[in-house]
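Notes to self after the call with IL:
- keep both proteins in one doc
- input above output, always
- annotate only the second one for now

Protein 1:
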Amino acid sequence: MGKYGNSFYVQLERSIFDEKYQSLTAHAKWLYTVLTELEHRFTSVSGDDFFFRTNELLAKDCGMSERQIIRDKKILADVGLIKTWKMHWVNKEGRKSEKHVSAFRIPRRTD
């Protein structure tokens, strides 16, 4: 089941269609859509409010190149649609991963 109680659709912020974001490329908007879907899948209302993904997996999720993913993540972060940072994930034994992953949070408007 999705984060907001459904598994049949993804809830996007309507703001993505506002004039403020009109200049975003189709690739950036698609990345935002995929990130929102991943947030619904990998977070919960009462649990973690962020998720992580490697650029390689995210590129596969989106059907885009890693180079395009890196470029569009920066664009989305710069306009405030996502928050992202580098991190290591920790396995069940408490050991950090050797590889960095990107953590993501999708801020919600409160107005």
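Protein 2 (the one to annotate):
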Amino acid sequence: MVKVFDIFGRIVSNVLGLILVGAGIIWILQAFDLAFNTPLVPGGPVSFMVNNHQWALYGAVAVAVGGAQVIWSNTRRRAS
């Protein structure tokens, strides 16, 4: 039963870490007005994050924390 919880915990931890990395990347791209400025979405959505460079810092922190979460969840010892 412990192994089932260990596997489930690793999956949840990886998913949350990857979601945080993805959100951080979006924040960085929005901070520099690059996120939705594509031919497929002309103009893109208007957001309070666009051209607000403090969100690039927040995004970098989110990417670092999410990456650390993924690395930690995949390198820690397995339950016996």
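Annotation: The helical segments are 2-31, 54-75. The chain has one domain: 2-75.
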